[in-house]
Automatic annotation (TrEMBL), chains A, B:
The keyword Hydrolase appears for this protein: no
GO MF annotation list: aspartate-tRNA ligase activity; ATP binding; nucleic acid binding
Species for this entry: Candida tenuis (strain ATCC 10573 / BCRC 21748 / CBS 615 / JCM 9827 / NBRC 10315 / NRRL Y-1498 / VKM Y-70)
Keyword Nucleotide-binding set for record: yes
Matching HAMAP family: Asp_tRNA_synth_type1
UniProt similarity note: Belongs to the class-II aminoacyl-tRNA synthetase family. Type 1 subfamily.
A single GO cellular-component term on record: mitochondrion
GO biological process, one term: aspartyl-tRNA aminoacylation
Coiled-coil regions listed in the entry: none
Protein name listed in UniProt: Aminoacyl-transfer RNA synthetases class-II family profile domain-containing protein
Domain Aminoacyl-transfer RNA synthetases class-II family profile residues, every copy: 191-656
Alphabetized NCBIfam families for the sequence: aspS_bact (TIGR00459), PRK00476.1 (NF001750)
Record keywords: Aminoacyl-tRNA synthetase, ATP-binding, Ligase, Nucleotide-binding, Protein biosynthesis
Gene3D superfamilies, per database record: Bira Bifunctional Protein, Domain 2, GAD-like domain, Nucleic acid-binding proteins
């Protein structure tokens, strides 16, 4: 939600704290009289634009010869009236602006009066001649000498009052003025880029990979399990549809329907608490392929799609990590084998403390279990450290940044963060913690080995924390610390780029490049968390009640098959996440296409005993010779936001809901009369 | 809904009259035991297809040289076991089939046992050599000599029992076996063609016309008016979203948001009684353009899109009606001016009795008002006739087809239908009706003029009926008769095609060609129907209470502007329907972009006094300099169904709902526990 504090930047009179600002505004200023015909005709009869500003700029010599042109668009700023001239600015549909000059003697006098009364953002059609402008910069610039100026629709006082903000900081425009915000070049670019990305994705799937786009139903079945779905009452008593969280089940039905390569850019719905990057409705690039025997066969298609988005639209180079641990640009992209770096889940968790590591950073975690045992919780016996080398100048006063040390930055316990200010700090940092019985040296503890492992010097920051052997905490406290450190020091500890001549460089901007990876070999199941509060220092687990790490249709890795019966927590799934610059952009898996195995997982591993009510349709479809299949889904909103460089998916959605689930433009959700509800056999209840 | 009568075609044992046939089936046949590893490995580890059947057929000589190939697919039929061989049939993912031969001595013996137990529709991976087949036709045909046969997933008894029906009449497969139906070539083609059409439409908009695809919200605002929308409860008391019937309001907001050329292939929702061609969720090709001054500027874009669909995908020629009233193929398609025939609404109603005339037929209605006045209802003073020339052989016994004469074919009164069997019938047909006081001759009645007007001969069928002066009945009784006659006699009264050399021919099949037209100049408003029943012979109207013929945002034709204040029923709107082969494929209009005019229409014409609650957001967006705009929506499901030659949109939707709104696969809608409902602050009610 936009921060209301920003309201102070524009006059108090347009702060709308009331529940219904739009209507308040409304009743004030418009009439319901019958508009005179000449007024209406003027708004509906006008010459079309003959050219765009950009076209004229690119062919200026031709247009300087004096042929009249017509431009249509919006008045970008309040006009300036001078003695001999009036100046105004037009913004055309590409977002390009141009000065319009009204000159006494040339421009008909009546237009001076029109321009004098005009308000920014009115829509206009102007005709005239292109001429060179007096330019301070010395560059050739042009302006339009106005011969005809027609207002196609007036604007209102809100547009006038918000005009300064519109130019200085459109992101701070109040959300009910979304249409004004969307007119500004930044947001226009976002919306247009999103369309380009969707089109590129579709053409890549269809034209390069012979996929079929299939629309699956949005009126789906309610699964009595969760409260996370939106319900849709019908006009039959106690009969509800539900809006789907993903097309997962329908796409598996499609695999049993002879569609061998399916994709869809699909709307999905999620009724849960909204965060900055969550929306109750969102868009997913969904795909599934049958007769595949390995997830890489899906991976190469997804890589081709994602690679094209970054190369063709964002114009960003795409990197992987080479055998030396350096970044290497994907120069020759293969559509036959996996190009992106593969990172096993355990490696991601132990090296980076998270299953979606930002690999642009070279920071990695150091296992100190050979030196110390943490004493606080025996279920968390692994001690690990992260060193931020040369984080500060030890000759100056230094305090660890609040973001790294504040417990609000961490969901549970925070790591211990120590600035190494002196040489004694570097060698004796641990003694204090041993004394306090937070850690204890192991039997094999060796001081000089510890020193060479950590290699601390004044100016470094050391952080350490404990974690469980098989980390279900994700990120671990130290994984979170690493993320915070990367944000806090964006230009430090960058992974080296290895150039084609072998040279190494870290002279690059992490914002304008992409490191793409697959995180693989996830545990298929996790224990449910038992009791406790989400802010407890340590989570506790109910090891006898398992849940799927992703969804219950994910196939076990065949190497781990026997463990499914004996020790399911040790089983790795054929799940794979696509992680780009530390963001989980997508996830997929091979699915269980064998009905017997799927039933076993439902009943004996997950304890879902009424699986037939929930998933009978799927089991039946599998049992009719459904071929082996695998697939994936990409978060389309997130991908678009990353391409346009925005942290928030709301910036790439035309009409997003705010964090209360409210559409500030149309003011939904809204109340419904009891009479209407009765037609759906429901009534409200408090 | 599929006709259950067809169930007799397959064994009685699989008639499932119970509410939950799938689960019944289910519990019977599958185990929840842990499947042995070797069984699972066999299903998940297999060679990928090296080629498709089609590729081998097209390059047969190369493959006859003996290199082994692998094909994956489904077992298309039950195998036949002979003394020396076994024969089976594989259907690959293109729907192409090929014979597999297992030969003792070549094919490992174990596979004979596998094939013997196999059930149609299991998914398989087979390898072997390509060889020529003994062919009766003399054509070179090939078969696969099997060296490896691997079952990737078993099929079930339903697939076996339904196999004959699958081959003979897949449309009659029970709807809960939709995935089996979708595997058959006809349905595969439907689904794949739909994807191609969507892709062609998108690329035409984006690449040829510089449009931007924008997703608009599906969680929209409930408008307290209608009961036609689906509601979505939220987890706030008495706060509901509604699923949109179309993106109309959001796309107008986009016009005020600087998007000058918008389109979207959008999901829409409609909670009303379902007919054969209606679904509760459907898909619309939606577009809108700003800074347009005439609807033809939208029309040319839509024509380009639609023309490409027919030419490139259906491979059908597209015709318009030329100045001689003949069909003429659009050979040179213009993207600068309208190519399709324009038919004013009044012309459509008077000549064809409907606003979506099938122009492939030359049948048109004849005004008899100069000869007779109908006497039954003074509000319906126009008498008109339709003559089906040479409909039957007068020398043989003839009865008017029931479809034309049955009152069930007509929603209100039916026309009087007279077979002209003799010469006296031709000249004296009316006398009986005059005697019965159904019609009366006018003062200017002239018998010989009537005869030359109708020019009846034995073998003709004459129909006549009355209608109102400005026909709000649509179709009129006689318009309906014309439609029925076209269906009943598909090869008669075809409009002539005028060839480029001027020759005329009606030697064409109406199914394989397209006549495209724009119906224009619709009345902007219609009186509401008052009282009475929809099956009354004559409708009655409440002339003081008007409703929009399309929607309240449609602009009045400027020529009729003054009538908006004085006589709104006479006002024509800037609405235009796209009609192809008698089907309304789309509709659009210029919109009112002036807030004052829109308010006037809401309040003073339509009597919507709480317009601010309903449309305040739109009025406010218009008032912020929203530019002039116009747009259109195409019924995408209908368009796809027409392209694949299907009468039913369910044939081009992967998982349609049946006529009770039920998804027969997943069995939605379904009940939801009260506990879940309370989270949404609702409860069920009877």
């Amino acid at each position: 939600m936009r921060n209301w504090a920003t309201a102070k930047r524009f006059p108090r009179t347009i702060r709308y704290p009331s529940p219904n600002p739009v209507s308040l505004q409304w009743t004030r200023s418009y009439s319901t009289e019958f508009p005179p015909k000449e007024v209406t005709v003027q708004k509906f009869t006008f010459p079309l634009a003959s050219h765009s500003v950009k076209h004229i700029s690119n062919n200026l010599d031709k247009f300087l010869q004096g042929n009249p042109v017509t431009l249509n668009g919006h008045l970008n700023r309040r006009p300036r009236l001078m003695a001999k001239h009036a100046f105004a600015e037009l913004r055309d549909s590409n977002g390009d602006t141009i000065q319009m000059m009204l000159a006494h003697g040339v421009t008909p006098e009546k237009y001076f009066g029109v321009v004098e009364k005009s308000i920014p953002e009115e829509s206009i059609s102007v005709s005239g001649k292109v001429q060179l402008k007096q330019s301070r910069s010395g560059e050739r610039e042009w302006e339009l000498l106005v011969e005809n100026y027609q207002v196609l629709n007036q604007s209102n006082l809100d547009a006038a009052r918000l005009d300064k903000l519109k130019h200085s900081s459109p992101k701070d425009l109040p959300p009910q003025f979304r249409y004004l915000q969307l007119r500004t070049p930044h947001y226009q670019n976002n919306i247009r880029t999103r369309s380009k990305i969707a089109n590129l994705i579709r053409n890549t799937f269809i034209q390069n990979h012979d996929f079929v786009e299939v629309e699956t139903p949005l009126l789906f079945k309610s699964t009595p399990e969760g409260a996370r779905e939106f319900l849709v009452p019908t006009r039959k008593p106690n009969a509800f549809y539900a809006l789907p969280q993903s097309p997962q089940q329908y796409k598996q039905l499609l695999m049993s329907s002879g569609i061998t390569k399916y994709f869809q850019i699909a709307k999905c719905f999620r009724d849960e608490d909204l965060r900055a990057d969550r929306q109750p409705e969102f868009t997913q690039v969904d795909l599934e392929m049958s007769f595949v025997s390995h997830s890489d066969q899906v991976g190469v298609v997804v890589e081709d799609v994602v690679h094209r988005v970054w190369k063709d639209i964002a114009k960003f180079p795409v990197y992987t990590i080479n055998k030396n641990g350096n970044l290497e640009e994907i120069s020759e992209f293969s559509t036959h084998k996996i190009n992106f770096t593969k990172v096993p889940y355990i490696e991601a968790l132990t090296k980076y403390g998270i299953d979606k590591p930002d690999l642009r950073s070279s920071l990695s975690l150091i296992d100190l279990s050979g030196f110390f045992t943490p004493l606080k919780n025996t279920n968390f016996p692994v001690l690990e450290a992260c060193v931020l080398r040369d984080a500060f100048d030890p000759s100056k006063k230094f305090k660890v940044p609040k973001a790294l040390s504040d417990s609000n930055s961490y969901s549970r316990r925070k790591p211990i963060v120590i600035p190494i200010k002196t040489q004694p700090d570097a060698s004796e940092w641990y003694k204090n913690f041993v004394e306090k019985h937070l850690i204890t040296p192991t039997s094999s503890f060796n001081e000089s080995q510890l020193e060479s492992t950590l290699n601390l010097h004044p100016g470094d920051i050391l952080a350490f924390a404990d974690r469980a052997e098989l980390p279900y905490e994700n990120p671990t406290p130290l994984g979170k610390f690493r993320q915070l450190a990367i944000n806090e020091f964006p230009n430090k500890w960058k992974r080296m780029i290895e150039l084609s001549n072998g040279d190494l460089t870290d002279n690059y901007c992490t914002k304008d490049m992409v490191v793409a990876s697959w995180v693989v070999d996830f545990p298929l199941f996790a224990p449910t968390e038992s009791g406790g509060s989400p802010s407890d220092e340590y989570p506790t687990y109910e090891l006898s009640q398992l849940e799927s790490n992703h969804h219950p249709f994910t196939m076990v890795k065949l190497e781990d098959y026997d463990l499914l019966e004996t020790d399911p927590l040790k089983v790795r799934g054929e799940h794979y996440d696509l992680v780009i610059n530390g963001v989980e952009v997508g996830g997929g898996s091979r699915r269980i296409h064998d009905a017997d195995l799927q039933k076993y997982v439902f009943k004996h591993v997950l304890g879902i005993h009424h699986y037939n009510d929930l998933f009978g349709h799927l089991l039946h479809a599998l049992s009719m010779g459904c071929p082996p299949h695998a697939g994936l889904a990409l978060g389309f909103d997130r991908l678009c936001a990353m391409v346009v460089g925005s942290p928030n998916i709301r910036d790439v959605i035309a009409f997003p809901k705010n964090q209360s689930g409210v559409d500030p433009i149309v003011e939904s959700p809204s109340s419904v009369p009891e009479k209407t509800l009765s037609e759906y056999f429901i009534t409200t209840k408090n």
